Amino acid sequence: MEEKIYKLMCGNGALNIAVGIAVMVTGIVSGVLLIVGGAKLLAGKNRILF
Questions:
Q1: CA nearest 23: which of 13, 11, 15?
Q2: pTM, full prediction
Q3: Of 1, 14, 17, 21, which shows the fewest CB atoms inside 10 Å?
């Protein structure tokens, strides 16, 4: 019984680490994309004609 719990905790810990890394990568990529998009909008605001 104790070995089964140990294996379950080990697998759950590995899953938590994998999900944490995926969330960090997704956050970094989306942040970079937002910064690049905002910079393009600010750079092109002088060419807007109303």
A1: 15
A2: 0.69
A3: 1
